[in-house]
Design goal:
With 144 residues, this protein is an alpha/beta fold. The chain has one domain: 2-Layer Sandwich (Nucleotidyltransferase, domain 5), CATH 3.30.420.10. Helices cover 38% and strands 31% of the residues. It contains four helices and five strands, in the order βββαβααβα. Strands 3-2-1-4-5 form a five-stranded mixed sheet. Helix 1 runs parallel beside helix 3. It is globular. It starts with 7 loop residues before the first strand and ends with a helix.
């Protein structure tokens, strides 16, 4: 790694799908505890539902977070479904989402603590994650 690990990182993740399901992508903005950006990532993930795209963004973000900390990750997303499922408050009825949630939990187990908090889409860092996801779609499929 070559860099000092941080006591805490903030992970802003967002998924986007054009159509549900449709062409989908994930966007991630990773920040230090002072909201300075450490990394940004975008990835086209093929055809998926919006919820699958949100989970894929979370999984990707946790991978990125592991490059910067082993201690605490604060996850912020505008997907109430993902946040409530990861917090164990909502049941996961779909097998595909259950598999993605299990993968996310496996990734989260690498850290001492991971918290999940819902933030509205208007949050500026979520907007940046959303921009990443939509740029990935534009690059892959063109605008629209």
């Amino acid at each position: 790694m070559g860099m000092a690990l941080l006591p805490k990182v903030l992970l802003f993740a967002d998924g986007a799908a054009r159509g549900n399901p449709g062409p989908a992508a994930s966007g991630v903005v990773l920040c230090d505890g002072f909201e300075n950006i450490l990394a940004e990532h975008r990835q086209s993930i093929g055809r998926a539902t919006n919820n699958e795209a949100e989970y894929r963004a979370l999984i990707r973000g946790l991978d990125l977070a592991a490059q910067h900390t082993r201690a605490k990750v604060e996850v912020y997303m505008d997907s109430q479904l993902v946040i409530n499922q990861m917090n164990g408050e909502w049941k996961i009825n779909q097998a595909r989402l259950a598999r993605l949630a299990a993968k996310a939990k496996e990734k989260a187990a690498r850290f001492q603590e991971v918290t999940y908090e819902y933030v509205p889409r208007s949050h500026r860092k979520i907007k940046e994650a959303d921009t990443q996801a939509n740029q990935a779609l534009d690059e892959r499929y063109g605008r629209g």
